[in-house]
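Why do we care about 3D structure at all? Because function follows from shape, and shape follows, mostly, from sequence. That is the central idea of this module. The next example makes it concrete: a single protein chain, its amino acid sequence, and then its structure expressed as tokens.
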Amino acid sequence: MRTFLLSVICCALLTAQSAEERTLLLRSGDKISGTVVTENDTAVVLKTSFGEISVLKSSIKPQSITVYLKDGSVVSGEIESRSDAGLRLRTSFGVVTIDQANVDRTSEGGTFIPGTMKDEEFLYADERLIDIFFDPTGYTMEKGAIYISGLSWGVALSENIDVSSSYWRYFLADLNIRPKFRLYKSGSIESEQSFAVGFHFHSAGMTGKMRYVSVTEPVYNWNGPTTYQTMQRWESVGDASDSRVWTEFFAAYTLSNLKADKQGRISYHLGASVIVHPEETMPRAWIALDNDITSKFKIIGQLYYDPYQPSYRQMGNEMRNKSPFDLDFGFVYAYDENLRFGIHYQPYVILFYLKF
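And the structure:
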């Protein structure tokens, strides 16, 4: 009888230990919590409050993790295996094994471990900017990501290369392509740097830039000789019927720092571009900042130099630029897993895009 009771107790303990509670974050944005019933190479079966659910592992977000060690070190990577003894991670510098006794806390994507991170903390916002409004940053998109906005579409061919195109310009017979190459990335979760270069090739069409010119036009008099009048005005560099090839070249650097309270990041962006057109060579430079207010909402400020981009007021009143420097300010909001939208001061005022 004593042996039987011990056997029952041991079985109960083993069952309790094997009843692993797990919360899965899916690629669709859904989150499912329950007790693991079975698990194999392709699926996980969870016992939830609404029954047993089989979840394909291909539908689960990759299990990335950031491990904070007791000595102050921080290691990020994808989970290769884990046990009570520790973690085996695939990182940017190879596969590493971390003893559980050295772990202070972790933050994870895909599977969340309760209590490892405060609810109000987030290391990255839902949106990492690849552009400041219409100027590039040092970031590229995640591998395999696809987006479509009101003006363009893009796809990431790898972690370091993405390609986009302004599809609205197809109506101007402008076959255009904008490859972007990330040449450098370094740092840790606390502070990271990224540098990218690229170009935007256009087979035709207007540049979207304007120049201030003096134009002499005839003034016809019914009862007298024709006279001429000289006026100053803004005119487009290139027009919709322009069939000449032109290209924009750009480079951008980003420094992103985790806030001290671990409620998101502040990122600094520095960049320059030049449009080479048969009529003009047009430079532009910018410095910008984006600040995560929440994991879904960030504000953006930008100071830029561009003598070929007048303000609405200058264009309307035919005023010359008093200064080639100007400001832009706005926000971006990640409504859900796919939809982002925002507003900013300079043209174009409203921005939105879908990301897949």
